[in-house]
Here is the input.
Amino acid sequence: MSKVYKTADEALAGVIKDGMMLMAGGFGVCGVPDSLILAIRKSGAKNLTFVSNNAGVDGGGLGLLLETRQIRKMISSYVGENKLFAQQYLAGELELEFNPQGTLAERIRAGGAGIPAFFTRTGVGTIIAEGKETREFDGETYLMERGLFADIAIVHAWKGDTEGNLVYRKTARNFNPNMATAAKLTIAEVEHLVQPGEINPDHIHTPGIFVQRIVHVPVALKDKVIEHRTTRKRPAA
Here is the structure.
Protein backbone atom coordinates (compact mmCIF):
# COMPACT_ATOMS: atom_id res chain seq x y z
CA MET A 1 0.00 0.00 0.00
CA SER A 2 1.43 3.37 -1.05
CA LYS A 3 2.33 5.88 1.64
CA VAL A 4 2.24 8.77 -0.83
CA TYR A 5 -0.81 11.06 -0.95
CA LYS A 6 -1.46 13.62 -3.66
CA THR A 7 -2.18 16.53 -1.33
CA ALA A 8 -1.84 17.50 2.31
CA ASP A 9 -5.63 17.56 2.56
CA GLU A 10 -5.80 13.91 1.47
CA ALA A 11 -2.99 12.93 3.84
CA LEU A 12 -5.02 14.25 6.79
CA ALA A 13 -8.42 13.05 5.62
CA GLY A 14 -10.08 10.68 8.06
CA VAL A 15 -7.41 10.98 10.76
CA ILE A 16 -7.65 14.53 12.15
CA LYS A 17 -10.27 14.95 14.88
CA ASP A 18 -11.28 17.46 17.53
CA GLY A 19 -9.36 17.32 20.80
CA MET A 20 -6.25 15.59 19.44
CA MET A 21 -2.65 16.16 20.53
CA LEU A 22 -0.35 16.89 17.60
CA MET A 23 3.36 17.54 17.23
CA ALA A 24 4.50 20.07 14.64
CA GLY A 25 8.15 20.09 13.63
CA GLY A 26 10.25 23.14 12.99
CA PHE A 27 12.62 25.56 14.65
CA GLY A 28 11.71 29.21 14.18
CA VAL A 29 10.59 29.25 10.55
CA CYS A 30 12.92 26.41 9.48
CA GLY A 31 11.55 22.94 8.76
CA VAL A 32 7.93 23.91 9.47
CA PRO A 33 5.28 21.63 7.86
CA ASP A 34 3.37 24.59 6.42
CA SER A 35 1.26 22.64 3.92
CA LEU A 36 0.05 20.22 6.59
CA ILE A 37 -0.70 23.10 8.98
CA LEU A 38 -2.78 24.76 6.26
CA ALA A 39 -4.61 21.46 5.69
CA ILE A 40 -5.40 21.24 9.43
CA ARG A 41 -6.80 24.76 9.23
CA LYS A 42 -9.02 23.74 6.31
CA SER A 43 -10.18 20.61 8.17
CA GLY A 44 -11.82 22.73 10.87
CA ALA A 45 -10.62 20.44 13.68
CA LYS A 46 -10.69 22.31 16.99
CA ASN A 47 -9.68 22.09 20.66
CA LEU A 48 -6.26 20.85 19.54
CA THR A 49 -3.16 20.56 21.71
CA PHE A 50 0.09 21.24 19.86
CA VAL A 51 3.60 20.26 20.89
CA SER A 52 5.97 22.59 19.07
CA ASN A 53 9.14 24.49 19.86
CA ASN A 54 7.35 27.73 19.04
CA ALA A 55 3.85 28.93 18.18
CA GLY A 56 4.68 30.11 14.68
CA VAL A 57 4.67 33.76 13.63
CA ASP A 58 1.82 36.14 12.92
CA GLY A 59 0.28 34.92 9.68
CA GLY A 60 2.50 31.85 9.38
CA GLY A 61 3.10 28.36 10.78
CA LEU A 62 0.91 27.56 13.77
CA GLY A 63 -0.08 31.22 13.79
CA LEU A 64 -2.59 30.25 11.07
CA LEU A 65 -4.36 27.95 13.54
CA LEU A 66 -4.32 30.59 16.26
CA GLU A 67 -6.15 32.90 13.85
CA THR A 68 -9.00 30.39 13.57
CA ARG A 69 -8.84 29.52 17.30
CA GLN A 70 -8.35 25.83 16.58
CA ILE A 71 -5.60 25.49 19.20
CA ARG A 72 -6.67 25.01 22.82
CA LYS A 73 -3.24 24.39 24.35
CA MET A 74 0.42 24.80 23.41
CA ILE A 75 3.31 22.78 24.86
CA SER A 76 6.27 24.92 23.83
CA SER A 77 9.58 26.46 24.80
CA TYR A 78 9.49 29.77 22.89
CA VAL A 79 6.47 31.86 21.92
CA GLY A 80 7.98 35.32 21.56
CA GLU A 81 7.41 35.83 17.82
CA ASN A 82 3.61 35.71 17.86
CA LYS A 83 1.57 38.69 19.07
CA LEU A 84 -1.71 36.82 18.57
CA PHE A 85 -0.46 34.05 20.84
CA ALA A 86 0.32 36.60 23.55
CA GLN A 87 -3.11 38.20 23.22
CA GLN A 88 -4.96 34.89 23.49
CA TYR A 89 -2.82 33.64 26.38
CA LEU A 90 -3.11 36.84 28.42
CA ALA A 91 -6.87 36.83 27.83
CA GLY A 92 -7.13 33.30 29.22
CA GLU A 93 -8.24 31.90 25.86
CA LEU A 94 -5.21 29.66 25.33
CA GLU A 95 -3.43 27.25 27.68
CA LEU A 96 0.36 27.11 27.79
CA GLU A 97 2.61 24.41 29.21
CA PHE A 98 5.99 26.11 29.14
CA ASN A 99 9.18 24.02 28.92
CA PRO A 100 12.90 24.78 28.85
CA GLN A 101 13.97 24.02 25.29
CA GLY A 102 16.23 21.10 26.15
CA THR A 103 13.56 19.62 28.40
CA LEU A 104 10.99 19.83 25.60
CA ALA A 105 13.36 18.11 23.17
CA GLU A 106 14.04 15.33 25.68
CA ARG A 107 10.34 14.89 26.49
CA ILE A 108 9.69 14.29 22.81
CA ARG A 109 12.69 11.96 22.41
CA ALA A 110 11.65 10.03 25.51
CA GLY A 111 8.11 9.62 24.21
CA GLY A 112 9.42 8.19 20.96
CA ALA A 113 11.71 5.81 22.85
CA GLY A 114 8.90 4.51 25.08
CA ILE A 115 10.24 6.22 28.21
CA PRO A 116 7.31 7.50 30.31
CA ALA A 117 9.35 9.88 32.51
CA PHE A 118 12.88 11.05 33.34
CA PHE A 119 14.65 13.28 35.86
CA THR A 120 16.51 16.52 35.10
CA ARG A 121 18.08 19.33 37.13
CA THR A 122 16.71 21.92 34.71
CA GLY A 123 13.90 23.92 36.28
CA VAL A 124 14.50 22.92 39.90
CA GLY A 125 13.60 25.77 42.23
CA THR A 126 11.63 27.68 39.57
CA ILE A 127 7.95 27.91 38.63
CA ILE A 128 8.64 25.11 36.11
CA ALA A 129 8.86 22.74 39.09
CA GLU A 130 5.49 23.65 40.60
CA GLY A 131 3.33 20.56 41.10
CA LYS A 132 6.00 18.17 39.82
CA GLU A 133 7.76 15.35 41.64
CA THR A 134 11.36 15.90 42.73
CA ARG A 135 13.93 13.34 43.84
CA GLU A 136 17.48 13.48 45.13
CA PHE A 137 20.35 11.74 43.30
CA ASP A 138 23.95 11.98 44.53
CA GLY A 139 23.12 14.96 46.72
CA GLU A 140 21.39 16.95 43.96
CA THR A 141 17.68 17.63 43.48
CA TYR A 142 16.14 16.53 40.19
CA LEU A 143 12.75 17.26 38.65
CA MET A 144 10.61 14.57 37.03
CA GLU A 145 9.34 15.31 33.51
CA ARG A 146 6.92 13.16 31.51
CA GLY A 147 7.64 11.89 28.02
CA LEU A 148 5.37 13.16 25.24
CA PHE A 149 3.56 10.99 22.69
CA ALA A 150 1.03 12.49 20.28
CA ASP A 151 -1.87 11.27 18.19
CA ILE A 152 -0.33 12.76 15.03
CA ALA A 153 3.10 14.20 14.20
CA ILE A 154 3.49 16.46 11.17
CA VAL A 155 7.06 16.97 9.97
CA HIS A 156 8.89 18.65 7.10
CA ALA A 157 11.80 16.91 5.35
CA TRP A 158 14.16 18.17 2.67
CA LYS A 159 14.27 14.79 0.94
CA GLY A 160 12.42 11.52 1.32
CA ASP A 161 11.64 8.36 -0.61
CA THR A 162 8.28 6.73 -1.18
CA GLU A 163 8.93 4.30 1.71
CA GLY A 164 9.12 7.21 4.16
CA ASN A 165 12.88 7.38 4.74
CA LEU A 166 13.59 11.05 5.47
CA VAL A 167 16.51 13.49 5.35
CA TYR A 168 16.28 16.88 7.06
CA ARG A 169 18.41 19.88 6.22
CA LYS A 170 20.41 21.79 8.81
CA THR A 171 18.29 23.57 11.47
CA ALA A 172 15.21 21.53 10.49
CA ARG A 173 16.86 18.61 12.33
CA ASN A 174 16.30 20.26 15.73
CA PHE A 175 12.81 18.84 16.37
CA ASN A 176 11.51 17.05 13.26
CA PRO A 177 13.45 13.76 13.70
CA ASN A 178 12.39 13.19 17.31
CA MET A 179 8.78 14.15 16.61
CA ALA A 180 8.61 11.67 13.75
CA THR A 181 9.11 8.86 16.27
CA ALA A 182 6.75 10.16 18.95
CA ALA A 183 3.22 9.75 17.57
CA LYS A 184 0.70 7.09 16.63
CA LEU A 185 0.67 8.49 13.07
CA THR A 186 3.44 10.47 11.38
CA ILE A 187 2.75 12.48 8.24
CA ALA A 188 5.73 13.95 6.38
CA GLU A 189 5.75 16.67 3.77
CA VAL A 190 8.80 16.28 1.54
CA GLU A 191 10.45 18.82 -0.75
CA HIS A 192 12.27 16.26 -2.92
CA LEU A 193 10.54 12.89 -3.29
CA VAL A 194 12.65 10.06 -4.75
CA GLN A 195 12.42 6.32 -5.22
CA PRO A 196 13.68 3.75 -2.67
CA GLY A 197 17.43 3.23 -2.96
CA GLU A 198 18.15 6.77 -4.16
CA ILE A 199 19.08 7.98 -0.68
CA ASN A 200 22.37 6.82 0.81
CA PRO A 201 21.38 4.74 3.87
CA ASP A 202 24.04 6.56 5.93
CA HIS A 203 22.27 9.86 5.22
CA ILE A 204 18.82 8.85 6.48
CA HIS A 205 17.71 10.63 9.66
CA THR A 206 14.25 9.06 10.05
CA PRO A 207 13.74 5.43 8.94
CA GLY A 208 10.58 4.82 6.96
CA ILE A 209 9.13 2.52 9.63
CA PHE A 210 8.17 5.64 11.61
CA VAL A 211 6.34 7.35 8.72
CA GLN A 212 2.86 6.29 7.61
CA ARG A 213 1.88 9.07 5.16
CA ILE A 214 3.86 11.29 2.77
CA VAL A 215 2.96 14.28 0.63
CA HIS A 216 5.28 15.82 -1.98
CA VAL A 217 5.49 19.59 -1.43
CA PRO A 218 8.13 21.28 -3.61
CA VAL A 219 9.24 24.53 -1.99
CA ALA A 220 10.47 27.37 -4.18
CA LEU A 221 12.99 29.90 -2.84
CA LYS A 222 10.37 32.66 -3.06
CA ASP A 223 8.23 30.72 -0.54
CA LYS A 224 10.91 30.83 2.16
CA VAL A 225 10.02 32.98 5.16
CA ILE A 226 12.63 35.16 6.85
CA GLU A 227 11.98 35.51 10.58
CA HIS A 228 14.08 38.64 11.13
CA ARG A 229 15.41 40.49 8.09
CA THR A 230 18.64 42.32 8.88
CA THR A 231 20.56 44.33 6.31
CA ARG A 232 23.53 46.62 6.27
CA LYS A 233 24.13 49.72 4.20
CA ARG A 234 26.20 49.32 1.08
CA PRO A 235 29.54 51.15 1.02
CA ALA A 236 29.34 54.56 -0.63
CA ALA A 237 30.08 54.39 -4.35
The chain has one domain: 4-118+148-218. Helices lie at 8-12, 34-43, 63-67, 83-90, 101-112, 176-181. The radius of gyration is 19 Å. The domain at 4-118+148-218 is CATH 3.40.1080.10 (Glutaconate Coenzyme A-transferase).
